[in-house]
Amino acid sequence: MMSHIDIEITAESGLELLTNDEISRLSEHSKGGEYELFKKCVLAVLTSTQVTDEISYHEEQLKLFDIEVLQLNKGVKLKLKNAPATSLVDGKMIQGLKEQVFSVLRDIVFLKQELESNSRIDFNSSNGCTNAIFHILRNAKALRPGCDPNMVVCWGGHAIPEFEYQYTKEVGYRLGLRGLDIITGCGIGAMKGPMKGALIGHSKQRISNGRYIGLTEPGIIAAESPNPIVNELIIMPDIEKRLEAFVRLGHSFVVFPGGVGTAEEILYILGILLHPKNKDTPFPLIFTGPKESASYFERIDQFIADTLGPEAQQKYQIIIDDPVAVAKATLQGVVDVREYRKQTHDAYHFNWQLHIQWDFQEEFIPTHDNMAKLNLKADQPLHLLAANLRKAFSGIVSGNVKEAGIKEVAKHGPYTISGDVKIMNQLDALLEAFVSQKRMKLNADNYVPCYRVIKPQNKPQPATV
């Protein structure tokens, strides 16, 4: 049984520099509709040492946990009731967790005030979404003008075997030796490994200001709590804004083995790169894993070939069991991006030129009706097919580990997914591979699919006379 403790902590993440009026409004907002969300996200940070993606665990802890925002003339203080004792050492909260707690306050409560009071922020248009994402990242001090590009986005699963985790750590180490910083989804597995490896690489190179950025969103933070190496935690409003933040911030991208969440990320970026307006934009994208995982990328590559075709396959390279080659290719990609942005006068710290359509920005809410209505037919532009396939995987992620999706599936049964027979056959085969390889959830032995792939029957051909 986890022990708990009451504690008060003072502000970090810039919230110590607020006016009395801002603190008053902050306290008022923390008692409103965002309060439960705020509590859930803070608790997820404080229980990050508990390796689980079961929502029921966090729900039980939430019944005991409470937060009060205290007003002080010198800043903000949080009073935590029944905080997990594992978040403290000798009666003091671990500094990294303390910083992450105030990052939650900044992004969930304070930023909501800022966005509501800023009439120029518009989440209902494509340009508005990109501007809002810029505002969120700037408010989190994630944008650093004048710095050379060096941000590597690492995607991959949280439910991976030990040998894959060790490989991600070795790749991160090779990236860190080359002075590259890391952005991940902030959780465990293929998100923690690259950061841990890079931390060691930075230490050897005497780099003391390494950046380990964790991008998450409220629906998934409980299932993928921030790992302790994250020193810049940013909570985006939803999964679509989170994905756009990745591609706007990153300079080179490395994808490790994962499950449906990783497939969602792959389809998201391929859909963007397949748009004609992005045809000539350099975007380094590498798939990699140990030799034992070669079949994983063979399956992913085959799925992309049979759904999006050879044009999509040309957008990435696959490097198996060679961390040094991955690091060198990643660094070369960063150099190419730097030269391109220098020539086109684009910012190093935020990729303004990349064209992202509304289909990739609008929040997709995976209800049964929305999942059933997805257009998964081949007779549409490739970037739109990729967008819709991305939404299908997003729905499965929600049904696996997000509170809203789990409740939706419990109430109405599995999501149904339908489309062209060839696409459905490939989708079903890929999902079956994820299940057999235990990549759906951490508790994979008891996994019950939250989806059902509907395969249309081939219509009989009329007899010829």
TrEMBL record:
Its EC number(s): 3.2.2.4
Catalysed conversion reaction: AMP + H2O = D-ribose 5-phosphate + adenine
Residues in Pyrimidine/purine nucleotide 5'-monophosphate nucleosidase C-terminal domain copies: 336-454
InterPro entries cross-referenced by the UniProt entry: LOG_fam, LOG_family_nucleotidases, PpnN, PpnN-like_sf, PpnN_C, PpnN_N
Residue stretches making up the Pyrimidine/purine nucleotide 5'-monophosphate nucleosidase N-terminal domain: 8-114
Family annotation (Pfam families): DUF4478, Lysine_decarbox, PpnN_C
Gene3D superfamilies on file: 3.40.50.450, MoCo carrier protein-like
PANTHER family according to UniProt: CYTOKININ RIBOSIDE 5'-MONOPHOSPHATE PHOSPHORIBOHYDROLASE (PTHR43393), PYRIMIDINE_PURINE NUCLEOTIDE 5'-MONOPHOSPHATE NUCLEOSIDASE (PTHR43393:SF1)
Protein name as it appears in the record: AMP nucleosidase
